[in-house]
């Protein structure tokens, strides 16, 4: 007797909904037990704010407000610099006031990104730059791992073992306090470098495995056609290895986005640090952290979707 595929699919969806409903119900019961009062209405203002954008003082100085009140001039206290600000709706200082660097001078009304969106943008920048750097460095280290030169392969193997054998947080501290101090790197640059170096070790191993998964006959055939070793690697081996390594690479890049939350220890206001600041001002930890988790999930889900599209496209090539 043949089974009905539609009935089987409906049963699978029913099981999925029952399990998902059970998880949601369990969370609801847990919040009831701790007598937690949900305040989701506090969250939107930390995503999109209507408080406008403040114009702050770039240096210490004295304020001179125009007679019509539509412009102000800031004259440096111990120098000759001066700036004039006209594009504002609300004046926050008075004529003759002494202000210091980063003090608010005026406010331009309108919708602006809240701290959570600003933190999300910082996370995106750090993750994107780290990803590109990790791809390049990981490719070089991966090629070094399969090199016939024992010195090159040994150095590449040492790099992978040292980086994978130490915690990412420790590496971030080393880059921030030691490498960053010696090379005079900003916190942002040190954070990107630490994430790139850490991720590159895993990317190198993925690329090594992908290259070794390509049959040796492919290299021999390419060399017999007159291609040099670099040409054969570039045009024959690496394209095949890339198709094999795309799923694990996608998983590693998703981990990179999540690992970027650790740079908050470097005084960088990424999404995680922005979440901590919002929690301290709203006293709504559950709402904030669920929102932050959803924003991370949005990033990783979008990346997973793009990788699946790329996999399907490569499968038809």
Shape verdict: extended
Question: Order of SSEs, N→C?
Answer: HEEEEEEEEEHHHHHHHH
Number of strands: 9
Strands ordered across the widest β-sheet: 5-4-3-7
On the 0 to 100 scale, the average pLDDT is 86
The CATH architecture of the largest domain is: Orthogonal Bundle
**What fraction of residues sit in β-strands?**
5-15%
CATH-assigned homologous superfamily of the largest domain: MetI-like
Q: How does the helix and strand content classify structurally?
A: alpha+beta
Number of helices: 9
Uncertain runs with pLDDT below 50, 5 residues or more? none
Please tell me the total number of domains: 2
Q: What does the main sheet amount to?
A: 4 strands, antiparallel
For the structure shown, list the relevant keywords:
single chain; 317 residues; alpha+beta; OB fold (Dihydrolipoamide Acetyltransferase, E2P); MetI-like fold; 2 domains; three-stranded antiparallel β-sheet; 10% strand; extended; transmembrane transporter activity; amino-acid transport; transmembrane helix
């Amino acid at each position: 007797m043949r089974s009905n595929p539609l009935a089987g699919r409906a049963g699978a969806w029913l099981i999925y909904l029952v399990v998902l409903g059970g998880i949601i119900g369990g969370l609801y019961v847990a919040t009831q037990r701790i007598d937690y009062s949900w305040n989701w209405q506090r969250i939107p203002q930390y995503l999109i704010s209507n408080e406008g954008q403040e114009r702050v003082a770039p240096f210490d100085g004295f304020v001179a407000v125009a007679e019509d009140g539509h412009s102000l001039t800031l004259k440096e206290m111990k120098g000759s610099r001066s700036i004039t600000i006209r594009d504002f709706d609300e004046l926050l200082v008075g004529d003759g006031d002494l202000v210091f660097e980063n003090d608010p001078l005026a406010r331009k009304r309108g919708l602006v990104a809240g701290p959570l969106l600003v933190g999300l943008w910082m996370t995106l920048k750090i993750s994107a730059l780290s990803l590109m750097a990790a791809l390049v460095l990981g490719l070089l280290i991966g090629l070094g791992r399969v090199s016939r030169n024992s010195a090159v392969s040994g150095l590449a193997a040492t790099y992978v073992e040292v980086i994978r054998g130490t915690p990412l947080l420790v590496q971030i501290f080393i880059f921030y306090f030691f490498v960053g101090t010696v090379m005079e790197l900003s916190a942002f640059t040190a954070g990107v470098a630490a994430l790139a170096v850490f991720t590159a070790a895993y990317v190198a191993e993925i690329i090594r495995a992908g290259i070794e998964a390509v049959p040796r006959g492919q290299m021999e055939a390419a060399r017999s056609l007159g291609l040099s070793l670099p040409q054969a690697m570039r045009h024959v081996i690496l394209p095949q290895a890339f198709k094999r390594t795309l799923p694990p690479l996608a998983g590693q890049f998703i981990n990179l986005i999540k690992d970027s939350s650790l740079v908050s220890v470097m005084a960088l206001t990424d999404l995680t640090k922005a979440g901590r600041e919002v929690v301290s001002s709203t006293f709504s930890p559950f709402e904030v952290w669920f929102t932050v988790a959803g924003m991370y999930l949005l990033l990783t889900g979008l990346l997973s979707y793009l990788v699946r599209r790329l996999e399907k496209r490569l499968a038809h090539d």
